[in-house]
C-alpha cells in the first residue's frame, strides 16, 4: 500500500502455502489488495497438505486460484515444479502490478518431499507411492533436462552455477559463524518505553537462568 500511495515502481511478492488460504488474514489481504489495486503478487505454494490435512478437506472451491477470481483479480494455476510455467506468469503479474493493474494470484502446484517439521511423520497421511511419483517431477532435474536439450554448453553452465551457489553458501556460513553471540537481554529490549513489572521480572529470571547455565555470577 505504501508503494501504491507513493506512486513508485515497487511490487510486493506475498508467498504462502495452501493451508494459509484457510486463514482469515489471507482473505482480508486479497480483498484489500483488490479494492485498492495494490501492486502485489500473491504466490500460493500448493503442496497438497496443510501439515497433514489434504487440500480436499480444507476447502470446497475448485482451486485456490478460484479464490483470487472471487475477489476480482486475475488468478492462475501453474505447475509449480516447472520453471517455464512459473516464471512467465510471475513476470506478467509483476509487470501488470507495476503498470497500475493491481494484484494477481498465482497458485503453484508443487509437493513437499520431506516432513513438515521434525516432529511430523508424513507416512501417517500419505503413501510412499505418492512421494515417489512426485520425486520424478523434481524442478531442478526438470530444468536441467530442459537446458541439456536447448543449450549446447548446458553441462558447463550447470556446473558453474552449482559452484557459484556453493561458494555463496560457504561464505554465508563462514560469515554467520564469525558473528558474536547476541546479549540474551536483547529479547526484552525495545518492546516497551516503560517495561511493566511483569516483563522486568521475567527478564531478571531469564538472566539468572542464563547465568547459571553458563557458570556466570548473576
TrEMBL record:
Its cofactor is thiamine diphosphate. Pfam families: E1_dh (PF00676). Belongs to the BCKDHA family. SUPFAM superfamilies: Thiamin diphosphate-binding fold (THDP-binding) (SSF52518). Its EC number is 1.2.4.4. The gene is pdhA_1. The branched-chain alpha-keto dehydrogenase complex catalyzes the overall conversion of alpha-keto acids to acyl-CoA and CO(2). It contains multiple copies of three enzymatic components: branched-chain alpha-keto acid decarboxylase (E1), lipoamide acyltransferase (E2) and lipoamide dehydrogenase (E3). PANTHER family: 2-OXOISOVALERATE DEHYDROGENASE SUBUNIT ALPHA, MITOCHONDRIAL. It catalyses: N(6)-[(R)-lipoyl]-L-lysyl-[protein] + 3-methyl-2-oxobutanoate + H(+) = N(6)-[(R)-S(8)-2-methylpropanoyldihydrolipoyl]-L-lysyl-[protein] + CO2. This is 2-oxoisovalerate dehydrogenase subunit alpha. One of its GO terms (molecular function) is branched-chain 2-oxo acid dehydrogenase activity. Coiled coil: none annotated. InterPro entries: Alpha-ketoacid_DH_E1_comp, DH_E1, THDP-binding. Keywords: Oxidoreductase, Pyruvate, Thiamine pyrophosphate. Residues 1-172 form the Dehydrogenase E1 component domain. GO terms for biological process: branched-chain amino acid catabolic process. It comes from Rothia dentocariosa.
Amino acid at each position: 500500500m505504501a508503494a501504491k500511495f507513493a506512486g513508485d515502481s515497487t511490487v510486493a511478492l506475498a508467498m504462502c502455502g495452501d493451508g494459509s488460504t484457510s486463514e482469515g488474514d489471507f482473505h482480508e489481504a486479497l480483498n484489500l489488495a483488490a479494492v485498492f489495486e495494490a501492486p502485489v503478487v500473491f504466490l500460493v505454494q500448493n503442496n497438497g497438505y496443510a501439515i497433514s490435512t489434504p487440500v480436499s478437506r480444507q476447502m470446497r472451491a475448485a482451486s485456490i486460484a478460484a479464490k483470487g477470481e472471487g475477489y476480482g483479480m486475475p488468478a492462475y494455476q501453474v505447475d509449480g515444479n516447472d520453471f517455464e510455467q512459473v516464471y512467465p506468469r510471475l513476470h506478467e503479474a509483476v509487470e501488470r502490478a507495476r503498470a497500475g493493474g493491481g494484484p494477481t494470484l498465482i497458485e503453484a502446484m508443487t509437493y513437499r518431499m520431506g516432513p513438515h517439521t521434525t516432529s511430523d511423520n508424513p507416512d501417517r497421511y500419505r503413501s510412499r507411492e505418492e512421494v515417489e511419483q512426485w520425486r520424478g517431477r523434481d524442478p531442478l532435474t526438470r530444468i536441467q533436462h530442459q537446458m541439456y536439450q536447448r543449450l549446447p554448453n548446458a553441462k558447463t553452465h550447470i556446473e558453474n552455477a552449482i559452484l557459484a551457489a556453493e561458494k555463496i553458501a560457504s561464505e554465508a556460513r563462514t560469515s554467520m559463524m564469525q558473528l558474536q553471540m547476541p546479549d540474551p537481554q536483547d529479547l526484552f529490549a525495545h518492546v516497551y518505553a516503560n517495561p511493566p513489572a511483569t516483563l522486568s521480572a521475567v527478564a531478571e529470571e531469564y538472566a539468572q537462568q542464563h547465568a547459571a547455565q553458563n557458570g556466570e555470577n548473576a
